[in-house]
Amino acid sequence: MWETIGEFIGQVGFPIFVATWLLLKIGPEMKKLRIELTRLISSISTNTVVTAKSNGMGEKEVAEIVRLVEDARNQGRRISDRVKSGFGNPKE
């Protein structure tokens, strides 16, 4: 094994070896992180709907917030960039 590693370092250089080793080690952790982020986004979406309904928003307003959240997530943007200033005010 050490001989193979030594040959690899000799062929590509030490910095490339370190970069390759890090990618191989970090890859599984990135997959776990992606799964946890997906769970977090789902929880935030659920909490957003519950909070909106508890603040007296109607079904149309809640549906619009859910649409904005999904659009922002699909476009990789922050949700606060998409939410219009009129949202969040309870109905009177």
Structural commentary:
The structure is a single chain. The protein is mainly alpha-helical and 92 residues long. The chain has one domain (2-82). It is built from four helices and no strands. The chain has helices at residues 2-12, 14-54, 59-74, 79-82.
Task: Offer a concise description of the structure.
By secondary structure, the chain is mainly α. The protein contains four helices and no strands. The protein has one domain.
**Secondary-structure element string:** HHHH
Number of helices: 4
Mean pLDDT over all positions: 78
- List segments where confidence is low: pLDDT < 50 over at least 5 consecutive residues: 88-92
Give the percentage of residues in beta strands: under 5%
Largest sheet: none
**Shape category:** rod-shaped
Using only C-alpha atoms, the radius of gyration works out to: 23 Å
Query: What class would the helix/strand composition place it in?
Result: mainly alpha
Secondary structure: number of strands = 0
**End-to-end C-alpha gap:** 72 Å
Question: How is the topology of this model organized?
Answer:
Elements: H1 2-12, H2 14-54, H3 59-74, H4 79-82
Helix pairs in contact: 1-2, 2-3
Which keywords apply here?
0% strand
